[in-house]
Amino acid sequence: MGSKAKKYVYSFGGGKADGNESMKNLLGGKGANLAEMAGHPKLKLPVPPGFTITTEVCTYYYKNNKVYPRELKGEVAAAMAKIEKLMDKRFGDPSDPLLVSVRSGARRSMPGMMETVLNVGLTEKTIPGLIKKTKNERFVYDAYRRLIMMYSDVVMEKAAGIEPKGKGIRKILDEKLGALKDSKGYKSDTDLTADELKRLVADFKKTVKEVLGKPFPDDAEEQLWGGIGAVFASWNGRRAFEYRRIEKIPDEWGTAVTVQTMVFGNMGDDCATGVAFSRNPGNGENQFYGEYLVNAQGEDVVAGIRTPGPINDYSKNDQSKSLPTLSKLMPAIYKDLDSIRLRLEKHYKDMQDIEFTIEKGKLFMLQCRIGKRNGVSAVRMAVEMHKEKLIDTNTAIMRVAPNQLVELLLPMLDPKAELAKAPIAKGLPAGPGGAIGRAVFTSKDAVEWASRGEKVILVREETSPEDVDGMHKAQAILTSKGGMTSHAALVARGWGKCCIVGCADLEIGADEKSFETKKGAVVKEGDWISLNGTKGLVYDSRLPLVDIDLEHNKTYTELMTLVDKVRVLKVRTNADTPKDAGQAMKFGAEGIGLFRTEHMFYGEGSDKPLFLLRKMIMSKNETERRKALDELFPFVKKDIKATVEAMKGYPVTIRLLDPPLHEFVPHSEDKLEALAKELGIDMSELRKRADGLQENNPMLGHRGVRLGITYPEITEMQVRAILEIAAELIKNGKKADVEIMIPVTCTKNELDNQKIIVEKVHKEVMAKFGLKKLPFMYGTMIEIPRAALQAGKMAEAAEFFSFGTNDLTQMTFGFSRDDIGSFLPDYISAKILPADPFQTIDQDGVGELMKLGIDRGRAVRKDLKVGICGEHGGDPDSVKFCHRVGMNYVSCSPFRVPIARLAAAQAAVENKKK
Question: Pick from 500, 514, 445, 446: which is nearest to 474 by CA?
């Protein structure tokens, strides 16, 4: 027996359907849901009959030079015959014509991104028959002018690949419609008479031929196949392509095409069309919410040509408060609609986005889909549906995308204000939330302006550690260069500060007092700008901010309670101050996975310790160095102790000094002179010592463990500070759980070398404080590929591994993370790489090294604790990977702790399903 022929067309209607809701991959979301509404025994809703051409046809179409499978024409004809039988009308019949709509439908909702054509089948031949049947000449010509407008735009221009010279055909026809209304003094399309519409249609057809070079097709079959081809073509349209890129929807999925019997909301005042949501998508409230228009077609509701009315009192807004509600105008139909929304929500167990049409007093359902919602709404709906027992705990956890929590955590630009304003530039969204401020172009100016009470946004080509003070004082940071793990991005995320990096759309002027965008906008020092760090958008004015109050957000707290019941993976934070630690604990952090000892040498209050560090760096011998380190010791101890104490017994992983020493050498003349004076040397000797620290490739140079091996006294001072802190807290009846982490290691011998120093200091501290035991852990950061490969040997010395995925990614790929902006976007758009490996762990390469390192390490030390402390610790996909490979914890910036908690819980749910 031969294999069963592939089915390309699925019918629905008359209480039956070939498909169902589970077939979204094949029928697209729209087709699957129409089949479900029409054919499911518990629903059987009033759905106009139709058929869906599968996504496999789209894939075939693009793989075979835009040719359809040869069986398709026959299957479409058979499916059309089914509709004709149900409706007792024939497509293209002059006496009683069937009209259809042709719509797109991907497996995931892409609202407004692809094309639709309504009223297909209306021709010069079928118009008289439809007028005779409906006894409404005005309605028929209104439907015909809509078809010409849509078809010429979607099929004849866009799908044909015609780039308009000046205005597109839709714009030209819209202007003709507007001019006619103006000449007659009409406010609405519905004021136009049948004769006026007839003349307009004749003008439209003449214009289409003049502008596009071919006549509007007056054949029903030609219109149908033109519409089908246009929907497939729109899958690769610019809008759809950009949307897929943002939403990470694969190009190979393709779209389905649904052909459905037309029902008309524009036949008179007993007709209407509308869009509604089973719950409010703006705030998540369990209230039926929607809008409608009398005597209109669906496109009118979303086009904004007329102000739609509210379906009920709850849906009223400032624009529609004086308009009649559907519940009062058509109470019986509203009651049916309300009943259907409740049935649909109960059936799908989620908020529904519903499209409906009322034709001559009869309600029809044209679409239902899972409604899109913002972060605030997503959290509220998940929690309330769980309380209503509509969904279980695992489903509630999976309902909220982890990154949606960003909207609950940070101030954001008012979305309504953004809709009314076009952005002047777009960059990489490095630090979420919104910010407004006056543009300044140096760190020094940011500090000075902020000290006067001015809100500023620091605009730089790129930032360096010396800019930290200005970055801290600024409301937000905007750079024209750099990637998502550049200095600016890392610092901003750590602070939960709004930040846009790699904004190649702008060029900073030679005077460093202004910038100009590719769109020609010029922003000068002191001008107000607004940033949307979540989307990477820059605006040249002062937009209002919306405040966030997380502590009083009851539904957020309830969701996170569910999250923590399910979660296995622990979540720590990267924090260097008691303030950051306290913020992270409010967000649910269970420890610090990365405390950087060098942070105390940047920003506010750093002058004295930085001076002493510089003194130590410039010391010529061990005696000088130890003297400087003894002076530095109390500062280091005080700084670390404040944070360890703030963590109240949660583990704190303290990374020993990591950056290359030359980074701390001052550049200003006055600071160099002060340093020379303190050391008792002249400026020429100081410069000679500074020059000796310079390296060709400092990222791979004298840093991390290499400093501790060359200068053991540096390790000794830091370890002594850490262990004395633990001892003091324990002696005072407090808890302390410290973990000493050696950075940039590549061999067990380095760990052995440093462990000798650690154990010696440990004995001395226990003796000093009279303690019989002083618990701590000794481990390393795995950030060099060799360390991952040698993990079995490393685990003989290390009790824990923390994967530093920023550097591990950099060294595995051979990419400089500060210079990827010039080529990585091309790699991603050309699909050479699926995503930015500095944002999401590259599971095939870097991830494989991590997995190998964990397996080899635990083969030697079964209780080896493993975590991650790179920026990936706050990326949902990376967190889920960490769960799968058996890590104990992830660590991320304080503001991403809730995101990591939710992602970890979702990973546990997904693991159970498998």
Answer: 446
Q: 773: which DSSP letter?
A: -
Alpha helices in 694-804 (DSSP H): 705-710, 712-731, 748-769, 785-789, 791-797
Confidence class of residue 1 from pLDDT cuts 50, 70 and 90?
A: very low
CA distance 580 to 574: 9
Q: How far apart are CA 439 and CA 406, in angstroms?
A: 25
Q: What is d(CA 79, CA 60) in angstroms, rounded to the nearest whole number?
A: 20
**Across all residues in the chain, what is the average pLDDT?**
91
Q: Which residues are catalytic?
A: 487, 869
Q: What are phi and psi of 666, to 5 degrees?
A: -70, 155
Among 223-227, 428-432, 591-595, 675-679, the minimum mean pLDDT is found in: 428-432
With tokens 């309300």, the residue in question is: 338
Question: Whole-angstrom Cα distance, residue 337 to residue 474?
Answer: 51
Q: Which of 552, 554, 550, 549 is nearest to 384 (CA)?
A: 554
Section 226-240 average pLDDT: 89
* Alpha-carbon 482 to chain mean position: 19
Query: Cα–Cα distance between 187 and 189 in angstroms, integer?
Result: 7
What are the structure tokens assigned to 154, written together? 């979607």
CB neighbours of 1 closer than 8 A, spacing ≥ 6? Answer: none
Q: Tell me the percentage of the chain whose pLDDT exceeds 90.
A: 71
Query: Is residue 151 within 8 Å of 214, Cβ to Cβ?
Result: no
> Contact at 8 Å (CB) between 801 and 779?
yes
pLDDT category, 871, cuts 50, 70, 90? Answer: confident
331-362 tens-digit pLDDT: 999 999 999 999 999 999 999 999 999 999 99
| Close Cβ partners of 714 (under 8 Å, ≥ 6 residues apart) | 616, 625, 629, 656, 657, 707, 708
Question: Is-contact 437 456, C-beta < 8 A?
Answer: yes
Angle (CA) 444-450-456 rounded to 5° is 85
Question: Do 879 and 904 touch, CB atoms closer than 8 A?
Answer: yes
CB 804 within 8 A of CB 869: yes
Cα separation values, 715 from 344, 742, 746, Å: 65, 9, 17
Give the pLDDT mean for 50-65: 96
Contacts 24+ apart (CB under 8 A), 819-826: 819/483, 820/483, 821/428, 821/481, 821/482, 821/483, 821/502, 821/504, 824/483
Question: Which DSSP helix (H) or strand (E) runs through 194?
Answer: helix 194-212
How far apart CA 907 and CA 109 sit, in angstroms, is 24
Radius of gyration of the chain (CA): 33
Q: Are 782 and 655 in contact (CB under 8 A)?
A: no
Q: Which DSSP letter does residue 886 get?
A: T
**pLDDT band at 3, cuts 50/70/90?**
low
Burial class (CB in 10 A: 0-12, 13-18, 19+), 843: middle
